Amino acid sequence: MPESPEVQALADHLDGRTAGRTVARLDVPAFQALKTFDPPPSALHGRTVTSVTRHGKFLDLDAAGLHLVLHLARAGWIRHRDSLPAAPPRPGRGPLALQLLLDDGSGWQVTEQGTTKRLAAHVVRDPAEVPGIARLGPDPLDGSFSRAGLAAVAAGHRVRLKGLLTDQSLLAGVGNAYSDEVLHTARLSPYALASSLDEEQLDRLYGALRSVLGEALERARGLAAGELKAEKKAGLRVHGRAGEPCPVCGDTVRQVVFAESSLQYCPTCQTQGRVLADRRLSRLLK
Protein backbone atom coordinates (compact mmCIF):
# COMPACT_ATOMS: atom_id res chain seq x y z
CA MET A 1 0.00 0.00 0.00
CA PRO A 2 1.40 3.44 -0.85
CA GLU A 3 2.08 5.53 2.25
CA SER A 4 2.50 9.27 2.68
CA PRO A 5 5.91 9.61 0.94
CA GLU A 6 4.71 7.78 -2.18
CA VAL A 7 1.29 9.47 -2.18
CA GLN A 8 2.95 12.88 -1.84
CA ALA A 9 5.30 12.06 -4.72
CA LEU A 10 2.31 10.91 -6.77
CA ALA A 11 0.44 14.11 -5.95
CA ASP A 12 3.42 16.23 -7.02
CA HIS A 13 3.87 14.20 -10.21
CA LEU A 14 0.18 14.40 -11.15
CA ASP A 15 -0.17 18.05 -10.17
CA GLY A 16 2.57 19.03 -12.61
CA ARG A 17 0.82 17.24 -15.45
CA THR A 18 -2.81 17.94 -14.59
CA ALA A 19 -3.18 21.37 -12.99
CA GLY A 20 -4.53 23.93 -15.45
CA ARG A 21 -6.09 21.31 -17.71
CA THR A 22 -9.85 20.85 -18.10
CA VAL A 23 -11.63 17.61 -17.24
CA ALA A 24 -13.20 16.24 -20.41
CA ARG A 25 -14.69 13.11 -18.84
CA LEU A 26 -14.49 10.89 -15.77
CA ASP A 27 -15.33 7.22 -16.35
CA VAL A 28 -15.72 4.64 -13.59
CA PRO A 29 -15.78 1.20 -15.25
CA ALA A 30 -15.48 -0.48 -11.83
CA PHE A 31 -18.74 0.80 -10.37
CA GLN A 32 -17.94 -0.53 -6.88
CA ALA A 33 -14.99 1.88 -6.65
CA LEU A 34 -17.26 4.95 -6.56
CA LYS A 35 -18.45 5.55 -3.00
CA THR A 36 -20.55 8.67 -3.63
CA PHE A 37 -23.46 9.52 -5.92
CA ASP A 38 -24.04 13.24 -5.36
CA PRO A 39 -22.42 15.07 -7.07
CA PRO A 40 -22.20 12.56 -9.93
CA PRO A 41 -18.89 12.01 -11.77
CA SER A 42 -20.24 14.05 -14.68
CA ALA A 43 -20.25 17.13 -12.44
CA LEU A 44 -16.47 17.28 -12.94
CA HIS A 45 -16.79 17.59 -16.72
CA GLY A 46 -15.71 20.98 -18.03
CA ARG A 47 -14.02 22.04 -14.79
CA THR A 48 -10.41 23.19 -14.69
CA VAL A 49 -8.07 21.31 -12.38
CA THR A 50 -6.72 23.66 -9.72
CA SER A 51 -4.35 21.29 -7.93
CA VAL A 52 -3.58 17.72 -6.89
CA THR A 53 -2.75 17.38 -3.21
CA ARG A 54 -2.65 14.79 -0.41
CA HIS A 55 -4.46 14.13 2.86
CA GLY A 56 -2.74 11.24 4.66
CA LYS A 57 -2.90 8.39 2.13
CA PHE A 58 -5.67 10.08 0.10
CA LEU A 59 -5.10 11.86 -3.23
CA ASP A 60 -7.23 14.95 -3.84
CA LEU A 61 -7.84 16.43 -7.30
CA ASP A 62 -9.43 19.86 -6.91
CA ALA A 63 -11.39 20.84 -10.02
CA ALA A 64 -12.59 24.40 -9.40
CA GLY A 65 -13.97 23.55 -5.97
CA LEU A 66 -15.23 20.04 -6.73
CA HIS A 67 -12.96 17.25 -5.52
CA LEU A 68 -12.12 13.78 -6.79
CA VAL A 69 -10.64 11.99 -3.79
CA LEU A 70 -8.91 8.63 -4.23
CA HIS A 71 -7.68 6.03 -1.78
CA LEU A 72 -5.59 3.41 -3.59
CA ALA A 73 -5.86 0.78 -0.81
CA ARG A 74 -3.51 -2.19 -0.94
CA ALA A 75 -3.58 -3.09 -4.64
CA GLY A 76 -4.46 0.17 -6.39
CA TRP A 77 -2.20 2.37 -8.48
CA ILE A 78 -2.45 5.44 -10.67
CA ARG A 79 -0.55 6.57 -13.76
CA HIS A 80 -0.66 9.64 -15.94
CA ARG A 81 -0.88 8.82 -19.64
CA ASP A 82 0.09 11.28 -22.36
CA SER A 83 -2.66 9.86 -24.54
CA LEU A 84 -5.92 8.07 -23.73
CA PRO A 85 -8.55 6.59 -26.07
CA ALA A 86 -11.35 9.03 -26.87
CA ALA A 87 -13.99 6.33 -26.38
CA PRO A 88 -14.96 5.57 -22.76
CA PRO A 89 -13.77 2.21 -21.39
CA ARG A 90 -16.29 -0.58 -21.08
CA PRO A 91 -17.33 -1.78 -17.64
CA GLY A 92 -15.78 -5.14 -16.85
CA ARG A 93 -13.74 -7.26 -14.51
CA GLY A 94 -10.35 -6.00 -15.60
CA PRO A 95 -8.00 -3.95 -13.43
CA LEU A 96 -9.12 -0.54 -14.74
CA ALA A 97 -11.19 1.10 -12.00
CA LEU A 98 -11.33 4.72 -13.11
CA GLN A 99 -10.20 6.86 -16.03
CA LEU A 100 -9.89 10.65 -16.12
CA LEU A 101 -9.67 12.18 -19.60
CA LEU A 102 -8.34 15.73 -19.92
CA ASP A 103 -8.94 18.27 -22.67
CA ASP A 104 -5.58 17.60 -24.38
CA GLY A 105 -6.21 13.84 -24.65
CA SER A 106 -3.98 12.95 -21.72
CA GLY A 107 -5.25 11.73 -18.36
CA TRP A 108 -5.18 9.28 -15.49
CA GLN A 109 -5.73 5.56 -15.38
CA VAL A 110 -6.45 4.17 -11.92
CA THR A 111 -6.12 0.39 -11.63
CA GLU A 112 -6.57 -2.23 -8.93
CA GLN A 113 -5.18 -5.74 -9.15
CA GLY A 114 -6.59 -8.86 -7.51
CA THR A 115 -10.09 -9.99 -6.63
CA THR A 116 -10.46 -8.07 -3.35
CA LYS A 117 -11.57 -4.59 -4.37
CA ARG A 118 -10.93 -1.87 -1.78
CA LEU A 119 -9.94 1.10 -3.93
CA ALA A 120 -12.27 4.02 -3.20
CA ALA A 121 -13.19 7.09 -5.26
CA HIS A 122 -15.28 9.98 -3.94
CA VAL A 123 -16.65 13.03 -5.76
CA VAL A 124 -17.31 15.63 -3.06
CA ARG A 125 -17.59 19.37 -2.55
CA ASP A 126 -15.27 19.27 0.46
CA PRO A 127 -12.59 16.62 1.19
CA ALA A 128 -13.78 16.56 4.81
CA GLU A 129 -16.95 14.86 3.54
CA VAL A 130 -14.87 11.71 3.02
CA PRO A 131 -15.06 9.79 6.33
CA GLY A 132 -11.46 8.62 6.15
CA ILE A 133 -10.20 12.20 5.77
CA ALA A 134 -12.48 13.63 8.44
CA ARG A 135 -10.96 11.33 11.07
CA LEU A 136 -7.28 11.79 10.16
CA GLY A 137 -4.83 12.53 12.95
CA PRO A 138 -1.79 14.82 12.62
CA ASP A 139 0.54 14.15 9.69
CA PRO A 140 4.22 13.53 10.57
CA LEU A 141 5.27 14.96 7.18
CA ASP A 142 3.54 18.25 7.94
CA GLY A 143 5.93 21.01 8.96
CA SER A 144 3.75 21.79 11.97
CA PHE A 145 4.06 18.27 13.40
CA SER A 146 5.93 18.64 16.69
CA ARG A 147 7.38 16.45 19.39
CA ALA A 148 4.81 17.91 21.77
CA GLY A 149 2.06 16.86 19.40
CA LEU A 150 3.41 13.32 19.24
CA ALA A 151 3.72 13.21 23.02
CA ALA A 152 0.08 14.27 23.39
CA VAL A 153 -1.10 11.54 21.01
CA ALA A 154 1.03 8.90 22.73
CA ALA A 155 -0.02 9.89 26.23
CA GLY A 156 -3.70 9.94 25.34
CA HIS A 157 -3.98 6.41 23.99
CA ARG A 158 -3.22 3.09 25.66
CA VAL A 159 -2.15 1.41 22.44
CA ARG A 160 0.96 -0.43 21.32
CA LEU A 161 3.43 1.50 19.18
CA LYS A 162 2.65 -0.47 16.02
CA GLY A 163 -0.99 0.48 16.44
CA LEU A 164 -0.17 4.11 17.25
CA LEU A 165 1.76 4.51 14.02
CA THR A 166 -0.72 2.74 11.74
CA ASP A 167 -4.03 4.02 13.13
CA GLN A 168 -4.90 6.84 10.73
CA SER A 169 -7.05 8.57 13.34
CA LEU A 170 -3.96 8.94 15.55
CA LEU A 171 -1.25 9.67 12.95
CA ALA A 172 -1.95 10.19 9.25
CA GLY A 173 -0.10 8.63 6.36
CA VAL A 174 2.03 5.93 8.01
CA GLY A 175 1.30 2.31 7.11
CA ASN A 176 2.68 -1.14 7.73
CA ALA A 177 6.03 -0.71 6.01
CA TYR A 178 7.17 2.64 7.36
CA SER A 179 5.92 1.88 10.85
CA ASP A 180 8.37 -1.05 10.93
CA GLU A 181 11.13 1.21 9.63
CA VAL A 182 10.38 3.97 12.13
CA LEU A 183 10.37 1.58 15.09
CA HIS A 184 13.62 -0.02 13.96
CA THR A 185 15.29 3.37 13.60
CA ALA A 186 13.94 4.44 17.01
CA ARG A 187 15.09 1.13 18.58
CA LEU A 188 11.63 0.51 20.05
CA SER A 189 9.54 -2.64 20.30
CA PRO A 190 6.36 -2.68 18.20
CA TYR A 191 4.54 -3.93 21.32
CA ALA A 192 5.71 -1.21 23.70
CA LEU A 193 2.80 0.83 25.08
CA ALA A 194 2.73 4.34 23.63
CA SER A 195 1.58 5.83 26.92
CA SER A 196 4.56 4.31 28.78
CA LEU A 197 7.33 5.95 26.72
CA ASP A 198 9.82 8.06 28.66
CA GLU A 199 11.19 11.38 27.40
CA GLU A 200 14.24 9.86 25.73
CA GLN A 201 12.13 7.24 23.94
CA LEU A 202 9.74 9.93 22.73
CA ASP A 203 12.71 11.85 21.38
CA ARG A 204 13.84 8.79 19.44
CA LEU A 205 10.36 8.08 18.09
CA TYR A 206 9.82 11.67 16.96
CA GLY A 207 13.23 11.83 15.32
CA ALA A 208 12.68 8.51 13.56
CA LEU A 209 9.29 9.58 12.22
CA ARG A 210 10.71 12.75 10.75
CA SER A 211 13.87 11.16 9.34
CA VAL A 212 12.42 7.93 7.92
CA LEU A 213 9.46 9.61 6.22
CA GLY A 214 11.45 12.65 5.14
CA GLU A 215 14.21 10.56 3.57
CA ALA A 216 11.64 8.33 1.84
CA LEU A 217 9.95 11.41 0.39
CA GLU A 218 13.25 12.76 -0.91
CA ARG A 219 13.99 9.44 -2.61
CA ALA A 220 10.52 9.42 -4.17
CA ARG A 221 10.44 13.01 -5.41
CA GLY A 222 10.71 13.35 -9.16
CA LEU A 223 10.19 9.65 -9.88
CA ALA A 224 7.58 8.48 -12.36
CA ALA A 225 4.65 6.60 -10.86
CA GLY A 226 5.94 3.30 -12.22
CA GLU A 227 9.22 3.69 -10.31
CA LEU A 228 7.85 4.49 -6.86
CA LYS A 229 7.10 0.97 -5.67
CA ALA A 230 10.58 -0.32 -6.52
CA GLU A 231 12.22 2.70 -4.89
CA LYS A 232 10.20 2.20 -1.72
CA LYS A 233 11.13 -1.48 -1.48
CA ALA A 234 14.81 -0.77 -2.10
CA GLY A 235 14.91 1.74 0.73
CA LEU A 236 13.43 -0.53 3.41
CA ARG A 237 15.85 -1.94 5.99
CA VAL A 238 13.67 -4.40 7.96
CA HIS A 239 10.15 -4.43 6.51
CA GLY A 240 9.74 -7.34 4.12
CA ARG A 241 13.22 -8.62 5.00
CA ALA A 242 12.51 -11.43 7.48
CA GLY A 243 15.39 -13.88 7.60
CA GLU A 244 17.93 -11.35 6.37
CA PRO A 245 20.63 -9.76 8.57
CA CYS A 246 19.81 -6.47 10.27
CA PRO A 247 21.84 -3.74 8.52
CA VAL A 248 22.66 -2.18 11.91
CA CYS A 249 23.70 -5.10 14.15
CA GLY A 250 23.69 -8.21 11.93
CA ASP A 251 21.05 -10.10 13.93
CA THR A 252 18.38 -11.93 11.93
CA VAL A 253 15.30 -9.85 11.11
CA ARG A 254 12.23 -11.61 12.53
CA GLN A 255 8.53 -11.28 11.80
CA VAL A 256 5.11 -11.71 13.37
CA VAL A 257 2.30 -12.74 11.01
CA PHE A 258 -1.29 -11.68 11.54
CA ALA A 259 -4.46 -12.51 9.61
CA GLU A 260 -3.93 -9.95 6.84
CA SER A 261 -0.55 -8.40 7.56
CA SER A 262 2.81 -8.92 9.20
CA LEU A 263 5.48 -6.90 10.95
CA GLN A 264 9.25 -7.21 10.85
CA TYR A 265 11.74 -6.18 13.54
CA CYS A 266 15.24 -6.79 14.86
CA PRO A 267 15.39 -8.46 18.31
CA THR A 268 18.80 -7.00 19.18
CA CYS A 269 17.94 -3.44 18.14
CA GLN A 270 14.35 -3.35 19.37
CA THR A 271 13.38 -5.97 21.97
CA GLN A 272 16.58 -6.47 23.99
CA GLY A 273 17.21 -9.77 22.24
CA ARG A 274 13.78 -11.23 22.96
CA VAL A 275 11.83 -12.84 20.11
CA LEU A 276 8.18 -11.97 19.68
CA ALA A 277 5.85 -14.98 19.50
CA ASP A 278 4.60 -15.46 15.95
CA ARG A 279 0.90 -15.99 16.58
CA ARG A 280 -2.20 -13.86 16.25
CA LEU A 281 -2.18 -12.43 19.78
CA SER A 282 1.57 -12.28 20.25
CA ARG A 283 3.24 -11.74 23.59
CA LEU A 284 6.91 -11.53 24.40
CA LEU A 285 8.37 -14.94 25.04
CA LYS A 286 9.66 -15.19 28.57
Spell out the key features of this protein:
286 residues; alpha+beta; N-terminal domain of MutM-like DNA repair proteins; Helicase, Ruva Protein, domain 3; 2 domains; 10 strands; disordered C terminus
Shape: elongated
Number of domains: 2
**Could you tell me how far the N terminus lies from the C terminus, measured between alpha carbons in angstroms?**
34 Å
Classify the fold: give the CATH topology of the largest domain. N-terminal domain of MutM-like DNA repair proteins
CATH class of the largest domain: Alpha Beta
Structural class: alpha+beta
CATH architecture of the largest domain: Alpha-Beta Barrel
Q: In percent, how helical is the residue content?
A: 25-40%
**Cα-atom radius of gyration:** 20 Å
Number of helical runs? 8
State the total count of DSSP E strands.
Answer: 10
Uncertain regions: pLDDT < 50 for 5+ in a row?
280-286
* Superfamily (CATH H level) name of the largest domain: MutM-like, N-terminal
Strand content: 15-25%
SSE order, one letter for each helix or strand: HEEEEEEEEHHHHHHEEH
* Strand order across the largest sheet: 1-6-7-5
User: Looking at the chains present, what oligomeric state does this protein adopt?
Assistant: single chain
Could you give a short account of the major beta sheet?
4 strands, antiparallel
Look at the structure and give the mean pLDDT. 94
